[in-house]
Amino acid sequence: xxNLPWRDFIALVASIGxxxxxLGATIPLTALRLDQRGIGTDIIGMITAVSALGILAVTxxxxxxxxxxxxxxxxxAAIVVGGLSTALMEATPDxxxxxxxxxxxxxxxxxxxxxxxxxxxxxxxxxxxxxxVAMYTTAFTLFQLVGPALVAAMEDQxxxxxxxxxxxxLLALPGMALIRGGAQNADDEAQAPWRVVLPQMPxxxxxxxxxxxxxxxxxxxxxxxxxxxxIATELALLSATVVLVGDTxxxxxxxxxxxxxxxxxxxxxxxxxxxxxxPALPFxxxxxxxxxxxxxxxxxxxxxxxxxxxxxxxxxxTGARLVAASAILNASWxxxxxxxxxxxxxLMHAVGINALPAVMWCGAAAFVACAWWEYRxxxxx
Length: 381
Known about the structure:
By secondary structure, the protein is mostly helical. It is built from 19 helices and no strands. Helix 13 crosses helix 17 (288-316), helix 14 (251-261) packs across helix 15 and helix 15 (263-277) runs antiparallel to helix 17 (288-316). The longest helix has 33 residues, at 319-351. The chain is globular, with a radius of gyration of 20 Å. The model is unreliable at 185-190 (pLDDT under 50).
């Protein structure tokens, strides 16, 4: 991959990987602490969802902040404030304060994801964009997977767990200091409004929205679905992990395919694959090897939809418009990750357990429909 500034890229990946580690640790730690205090799952769900609202709240401002202060300064500020908001959860048991701190934490994550995704697109050479972005998303997901394991291993050994989790974020700062270049020419089209960018990215936004829906449902409700399908509890709890493994280990091959055969072709193909795999879930539950295979393939294809949405942003936009597009990507994530589990849980209770794959299928079908519409309206995109 010629023309890739490897020092900047490795430093950025290391920094965002540490952020993924901290994020992966804080989410289960928050739920665990609340459960230990006897707080109901409804309140736990609400406090968890507040982080997604923080992402939504910060979306309109990120492009303006990057134009004014620069990408590096914005990321450093978000890392410090995100770590501090996590550490302060150690100082109070008040649920309202926890909700406020999680909102601030979500806003910081929104800044980091938006700027980080724009930055990696800026660094990636056009001929290898799929592979470069795949390495970035793989590193983040891999570190995020380690986070819950870290909490499980250290739970009985660290009395100040939130303070330790907050300190994890600060480990991302040395990587930021090593980066020599800037994310983009912030003064170029500095005031690119989302209204200008959004009409050019329906497929991209829907891809992010679908994966957020898929990811949150896989983590929250898929184990319950597996148990109701007769799978042993111990194995059912591994279902979400298998999905994440597929998402983690198979992103680079999809990035290579996109570079070789065209991003839109592979992007749309992943959506069609998800639509074909999801109806097999109820039938695969009775056959262990088929169940694990379907989940692995689903995780890989769904993860590739999000990864290739990031790639598409870099293909279409530069400068402040790239930052605005990345912000819209994360806003799409915030909408479905906050509301998707709530709606799906109600449907599963009302019409049956198979509402889970049905909701996922509708999300994937909406993505494919957007891809078809975009091909008709924007054939050269």
